[in-house]
Amino acid sequence: MDADGPAESPFHDDEPHNGGLAVRLNWLRAGVLGANDGIVSVAAVVVGVAGATGHLPTILTAGLAALVGGAVSMALGEYVSVSSQSDSQRSLIEKERWELAHMPEEELAELTALYEAKGLSTETAALVAAELTAHDDLAAHLSAELNIDPDDIVSPWHAALASAVSFVIGAILPMLAILLPPPQWRVPVTFLVVLVALALTGATGARIGGAPVPRATVRVVVGGAVALLATFLVGSWLGASGVV
């Protein structure tokens, strides 16, 4: 602490230096993607059905089926994907733990060589490797060799739940937009609500990933508009042709 107050932190506020970053980012990623998929997929279904028929119970049934099926599908897909990733990470951690227990000298030499490869001198690399090993040998090797932080292993159940819940939240928007307005306004209102919601999810996803916001937002909005227009045209054609 200096004379003027507490010493300034050496870390920048906009850079992540604390643990658990991957866990939080995965929750956010799964949430944003789930909401985006819920908005687009359910909106496409209800708009397509609305193009074919104005029968409200039919639109409601199709929308609910898309909502439930999509939420389950998103949760299962996220669970399988994250389970494979976390199983692989845990296997590597156990392998590294066994090697440290049975061949510590070889592992220390390997860690020293890794830091030498990063540009440190032999003496400095050996000192860094020894000090990190004394502090937490497993964490040191996981970070240098495998780029794994044990605190950042993502739970597949958490990811699946975040994906399913966010899908349902996203799907509710087009459901309300298609069900609440008068018949002549159902499709226009749904288009407007969905495109605004997609702009928000696109901007949010871009900020999370550090990507340019305008480009990501336009890409998501244009993609959603194309999906809605395509399903509406197909539904209108089926309705006009008497197929449904």
Measured distance between first and last alpha carbons? 76 Å
| Tally of helical runs | 7
Whole-number average pLDDT? 84
Shape: elongated
Record field, number of beta strands:
0
Question: For the report, how would you describe the main beta sheet?
Answer: none
Radius of gyration (CA) equals: 26 Å
Percent helix: over 70%
- The structure class reads mainly alpha
What is the strand content?
A: under 5%
- The SSE order reads HHHHHHH
Stretches where pLDDT is under 50 for at least 5 consecutive residues are 9-19
Task: Provide structural commentary.
This protein has a domain at 21-92 and 155-241. The chain is an all-alpha fold. The protein is built from 7 helices and no strands. The chain is elongated and about 80 Å long.
Which features characterize this protein?
single chain, 244 residues, mainly alpha, elongated
What's the arrangement of secondary structure elements?
Layout (H helix, E strand, L loop, with lengths): L20 H32 L3 H47 L1 H14 L4 H25 L9 H24 L6 H24 L3 H29 L3
Helix pairs in contact: 1-2, 1-5, 1-6, 1-7, 2-4, 2-5, 3-4, 5-6, 6-7
Compact summary:
The protein has 244 residues and is mainly α.
